[in-house]
Amino acid sequence: MNRPTPLSGFPEWLPAQRIVEQQVLDSIRRTFELHGFASIETRAVEPLDQLLRKGEIDKEVYLLRRLQAAEGEAEADAGPNTLGLHFDLTVPFARYVLENSGHLEFPFRRYQIQKVWRGERPQEGRYREFTQADVDIVDRDTLAFHYEIELPIVIGETLAALPIPPARIRVNNRKLAEGFYRGVGADDTAAVLRAVDKLDKIGPDAVRELLVTGAGLSPAAAAACLDLAGISSSDASFADQVKALGVQEPLLDEGLDELVRVVEGVEAVVPGLVVADLRIARGLDYYTGTVYETVITGHEELGSVGGGGRYDALASDGRTTYPGVGISIGVSRILGRLLGSGALAASRSVPTCVLVAVSDEAARGQANAVATALRSRGIPSEVSPSAAKFGKQIRHADRRGIPFVWFIGDGSDDGEGDSVKDIRSGDQLPASAENWTPPESDRWPTVAAPE
Amino acid sequence: MNRPTPLSGFPEWLPAQRIVEQQVLDSIRRTFELHGFASIETRAVEPLDQLLRKGEIDKEVYLLRRLQAAEGEAEADAGPNTLGLHFDLTVPFARYVLENSGHLEFPFRRYQIQKVWRGERPQEGRYREFTQADVDIVDRDTLAFHYEIELPIVIGETLAALPIPPARIRVNNRKLAEGFYRGVGADDTAAVLRAVDKLDKIGPDAVRELLVTGAGLSPAAAAACLDLAGISSSDASFADQVKALGVQEPLLDEGLDELVRVVEGVEAVVPGLVVADLRIARGLDYYTGTVYETVITGHEELGSVGGGGRYDALASDGRTTYPGVGISIGVSRILGRLLGSGALAASRSVPTCVLVAVSDEAARGQANAVATALRSRGIPSEVSPSAAKFGKQIRHADRRGIPFVWFIGDGSDDGEGDSVKDIRSGDQLPASAENWTPPESDRWPTVAAPE
To answer: What global pTM score does this model have?
Structure first.
């Protein structure tokens, strides 16, 4: 067969890039677990009727059918039970909570790091297969407000532990927006939200047009909505700016109060992390309170690398409702940018710290024994593929970034013992496989932070 | 919506079970990396023409199409570019090697832990979505034989590090089998192999019938093939038994020599791990040398929990060929059995080691600060969801298996300081968030080994 070519939208990493990804995922996992979030994984597939509950997303779903499915088999027809690949981790999580509610303790703190799939047109930062890392807290019947303050702190800490530039979390509140829209006389507040959500894409004039002709607002009301979207502050002062617009509505006041509490609550713990930004809408329609969007400083044009919010009715079996709040980190979007630009790199392309040289094939068993002794003390080691000249074996290590090459002595009492060579400096020192230890910074590959 | 029900063949774990899975996967990864295998992940999808290269598997493939795909769009027609979910990790790996050969160093040692999908009828140990953990070594043009000895040692060490009963690796050799079949006069050696592969399912009489009527063997030749399949030994003595059958064929001798080297080479390093078992066939047709099948002692009827072999021609772009050898561990099959039977269990259902109690909501900030201090020293901690009575907060911890509850003192000079209660023993001792440390065995959840 011919050499295969990459599939657009389905990124794959080379081994050294994968080491960066692994360390990023390990770090995210560690922070989540330190905060007491339990891991779950859900299956890759959901029935189509589950996937379409959110609306607006249907065109992005990949459906499955078996190659040898019988003619007319239900799953070939896009019926409600047809399986599709999940496009996010929130919808599967809501289904998991309902399905297992009898076996879970509430409030339930979970994290989930998995691939998701969307049949969208690929472009920079937008893939057809990508990895998300989600944290959510759900409770039964009611969910305490303090979790809306806790979650951005967790995400801020998670991103701060990664070798990437600082993150900023933009926060808004659905009650605030909906209350304001009602207050200026909007009948279809969802239509107003959808129009405002397009602000970055189509600009204020086109949004104004949409608000008047599409959402039926008066020109003055449309102007007020645009004014609202222009407000932002990293402290509680946004509230005064909103009040200065003169709109009266109890839901608006409730939303303002919540947003002030989130901004002040996070600011008190992690100064500079959050900013109230009243143009943040989040497209998905299940949010009912605080909404979040995360950008990386200096990479704002990449768009959101993490979003989420509070949802009150996503998981309900008719009798019991499980309100929740969650934020998702777009791991692939972050890595795609930082690996692509060379801002993150691994110190070597293999886990191996020591290559044990082989003087001739008859001595391979001895070399294996040395590698086994090193591994038993947690030092990643492999044995040279062949008994080539030592110069070639050293080049084998060098091309992979393996820092040390081990040479076995002749074993006689007065002869040479084992030695280990740091191939970066060329220093070669006597060593025993029973007690030699590399510098900690060389034991495993490390990942370099950007400038 | 109603409570959803599980999808047959798509297993999902509860949080405590997921902790077991995570620790199993972490352990597998660590052993692989200690042996110098580099991680890669491949996309979940491959073009259909790639997936069908192996033959015999086509009915198991899940094909994808976008919900909103235009009528007549190619991907709805199962053409060669239609995307399907991968059903193993070997075929995607061979494609990855060809695609990236210019960026890889050979011999290339890689491991890959990912989900795979097969549209088969689910039953115990057989899923539609499951996790595999593969190690392979590929080289360019030629592959040293010693890797066929190394790989079962790596897999044996990997499985020995898991809290499961001992594994046994059954080994055979395709050259041995094919040489023998040629030697008894078979024209279609693949048909003979397929018939012998059914031995466990349909029994010797039915296989004999298949060999005579299907593969065209004489009754004497069929009997010899069944005799061959009956041979096994944990040392090199199988070779004498084979020779006693009196079949002459150079390829048989080559295969016998290789199998002796594998059995003796592994036995010298890990006594009792391998057994030559001449009925092992492995269904997939790309193997060309040693083949492996792994069973867990006491769970033999579960079938193979790890298989693989040497393949010489799987990855070739017409000019260059990349021969390889690999073994895959069926992680889901192992976990399904051991979690299902209760033989493996986690010490708690959450990562949390300490629950910080909250005396009233106004003091939540203080509790957050304690949790932050504990986490900064690597102690997984969360804050109580509400300022309920302390008894209720302790029950909250108890239901999740969280071992410690932290109580904040009143902070006055002569008042009570902080204290921490081990809720298993009831012991409560003064403690400071700046230096208290739990016993190492309590810091993270642990997984109990089976009896």
So the answer is: 0.95
